[in-house]
Structure formats: structure tokens, C-alpha cells
Write a structure and sequence with these properties.
The chain has about 550 residues and is an alpha/beta fold. Among the domains are: about 150 residues, P-loop containing nucleotide triphosphate hydrolases (Rossmann fold, 3-Layer(aba) Sandwich), CATH 3.40.50.300; about 150 residues, no CATH class. The protein has 16 helices and 15 strands. Helix 12 packs across helix 13. It starts with a strand and ends with a helix.
Amino acid sequence: MLLGLNLKNFAIIDELSLEFGERLNIITGETGAGKSIIVDAINLILGDKASTDHIKSGREEAHIEALFDVSKNSIVRERLSNLGFEVKEGELIVKRVISRGGRGRVFINGSIATSSILEQVTEGLIDIFSQHEHQSLLREEMHLVVLDEFAGLSGLRQKLEELYSSYIALYRELEEIGKELNEKNKREDFLRFQLNEIDSAFLRPGEEESLEEERKKLLNAERLFSLTNESYGILYENEDSVLDVLKRIYNGIEKESEYDVTLADIGRSLERCIVELREIAFALRDYAMGVYYDPDKLSMIEARLQEIKRLRMKYGATVEEILEKRKAIESELKNLHRAEDRMKSIMEKTKEIEREVQKCAKELSEKRKKAAIKLSEAVMRELKEVGIEKGVFTVGFEQKRLSPTGLDRVTFLFSANPDEEPKPLTKVASGGELSRVMLVLKEVLARVEGSSVLVFDEADSGIGGAVAEAVGRKIKRLSQNYQVICITHLPQIAKFADRHFRVVKNFRSGKTEVKVESLEGEERVREIARMLSGFKVTEKTLEAAREMLGEG
């Protein structure tokens, strides 16, 4: 709901404040008084492009400020929150400053913004019926939404959107698996080659270290044999070997130990040394007997080490890492086979949900077409009441590729004359006709589109008498569900006002002054009388005005 509008240095207005009522607000005034300036200001509040032409002559800046109550409009509050604007007590305050310097400013709830952000925030908040501006019903994409709401198909449409979303998700998953499977055969051959290459090497943990040790032993076989064989000789085999000398010492100690028991202990220790040295000597002998240079064995070991090195360069830094790589390859091969099974499962699910989507889309399309006939009939009946007796309104259907909204592209079509082919609403030439068509649609659709404020600037263009009365009644009925602001020059419409404003333009000291007066009681009677008679107000026109207001 638009609570108030404040203008300063705007167009021909010095300063102006308007407080709107929640139902039908009527704005009247003589031709050229500046009534449509109010509509221009509202357009700017909705994000229209500003111009220095909007600034009053002799001033540097123009200010436009609007106060909205959005406490019952969760969509706008959510937009504000998502865009980072604070919402206090359900209020939306929009301010625009237009400067001759060319750098205008936009404020939303006190925070700086841009006109594009302003347009996002206020989208659908106000519908203005004037020169095709800010009319949600002129956006073709809204026609399908409106028709579905009129037919009570929102639930079915939501079901279709959810089914379609699931279908697309499965379809994309199928595409990904398809890509995997396209590469599967090549990948599988490559993985099997790697697996066979590793398996055929019969690698064992620790094998490389063991082979390196054996290789070093073979390369140094002569030195090792010479060392161990010579050591064996010194310890045991040679004449006067170490063990021979130790035996002689032991025998002497044993012989003389009867004279000193301490020598007996030493003798026993020496005996243990002799036993250990004999074992060491025999171990050296056995080692020397087993060590010899074998060129064939060395060649085999070096070939094996080279093979391991080649595999390490491809699969890992160690034999253990190569064996881990083998496990990973084996796991990937299993997953490739799982992908085939998964694809079969998802294909079945996709076909099943595709059938559900098609069924739901067809059901939605059939119900839309039935509802379109009812909508057309309802609009046609109402068109006669607003002076478009021969008007034709239809809902055009065009089948399109399946989408989340179904199979239909819907367009509202209108012709003022039965011998002319109905055209999209956007191509309706007459502003007055368009406003009346919109008025009828609004009444038929009630609160479908969600706009909370309706502004009519040309609803009475080219009509009068009984038709004007019918238009007035329709606007009045609309105000039961919407806040309506209507600029009119017809008393048949003005009489229905819940709040009546008059725009007055005066010339003082060579300057133009515009003010807006809120009319009540006798002032309102005189304004209706002026509208009935023109400039001269008589007792007769005053009486007629009182009678008319009594009817309203």
C-alpha cells in the first residue's frame, strides 16, 4: 500500500505532500493542472529513468519520496532482506534525488541504492495503467501465471515444476554417465594393461631392498671371500692360530688354578671365549664357502632391479606404492562396471518420470484450455459494461517444447472490433481501450497477480454517461481488494472516491504554483459540480452533484 508521496522542486511543483487512503483515491482537476505529474513521480519511484526535465525551472535538484506499507507483502520484504536492506515495522521508504549535475541518487530505507535495484524491489508493487507503463499484465510471461491462478492450477503447476526438476536432474546424470561410458572401453583396456603389467612382475614387499643387498654381495664377492677365508685361517686353521694360542693359555691356567681359585674363574671365562671364537671361525668358514662371484646371477638380479625401477617410474616410488596403485586400478575397474549398472537403473527412472511429466503437462494444458474459455467469456461480458460492446478477448495457445511450466505459450489477445483479428495486448493502440481492458481483467482476476496498488490515468478516455458509470463501479469494486489511485475528469467515476484530491494550478507573480487539496463535504460537492458543468457552478449543478454523491 502506498501511504504517502512527497515531491519537492518536481516539474512545476514547488512542494507537495499526499497521504493516500487504503481504498479508492480519486484525483481530479482542470485540464493541464498537473494531475499526471503525480503518475510521473510514481513511475520514478518504480525505477524509471530520471531526466533533468523533471527538475523545476530555476532549481538544482528535485526530490521524490514515497512511503509504502509492505507489512502484508512478504515478497517485497524478502527481496529487501535478500538485497541487504533493513525493514522496520513493515515500511518501505523510497527516495530519489534528481540533480542537474547528472548524478541522481536513489535511497531505499535510508541506504544508497541504484535505479536497477529499485526496479527489482518495487517490481509488481504498483500497476500503472498509462502509456503501457508498469503493467504486469502486459508482460506475456505473466499471462500463463495469471491463467493458472484463475483456473486454480497453481498446485498442479508446482507439481509439474517439481517433476520436471527431478527429470532434468536425472537426465543430466545420464549425460554424465554416458560420457563416462563412452570413455569406458578405452579406459578399461588401459587399466587392464596396467594391472597385467604389475601382476606379471610378481612384486613382493621388501624385494627391491633384498635384491640390492644381494647385488652388492656379488659385486664384492672376491673381497668378501678373501676377508672371511683369511679370518678363518687366523682364528682356527693356520699354525699357531688364535684358538691354538688361547688353548695353550687355558691349559696353563687350568693346571695352575689349584694354587689359586681366582685363576679357575678366569679359566672358565677364557673357555667360554674359546667356544665362541670357534663358532665365529666356523661361521666365517661357512660364509667363505658360500660366497663366490656368479655373473649369471648378478645379471638376473640387475635385470630384476631394472624392471622394478621401470615400474616405479610409472606407478610409485616404492614396491609398496606400486602394489597400492594396483589396488586403486582394480577398484576403478569395478566402478566402471558399476557405472553400466547405474546407467540402466537411472534410464529406467528417467523413463518413468518422463511419463509422469508428460502426463502432468498434458493434464495442465487441457485444464488451461478449458479455463481460457471461461476467462474469455467472463472478460467479454464485462467489456460490454465499459463501452467496448463489440470487443473480442481470447487466450491464444501455442505449443512449445516441454519446460517447467508445461507445453503451452499463452498470450492474451484483444480486438475492439469483431471484424479485426485479435492482437496481443501490447499492440492495442488506444490507451483508453487498453486501460478499460486492464480494468476488466483486474476485476475478473481479482487478486491474481499480487500487485497491491493500481494507478489509472486513462481509464475514462473517450467514454461518458452510462459507460463511465459502469467503469466507476468497476474501479470501486476493485478498491475492495486493491488500493486504487485514479486520475479522472469524469464525475461518474469521481463520485465513488473514498478519498478525493483536487489538483489546482495558480499563477502568482509570474510563477506557476501547483497544490493538491483533500476534499470533503461541500468542497467535494463543488468539485463534482464543476466537473458536471465545466467552469460555471450553479445551484442546479450543485444539487446534481449532491445527488450524484449520494449515489456513490
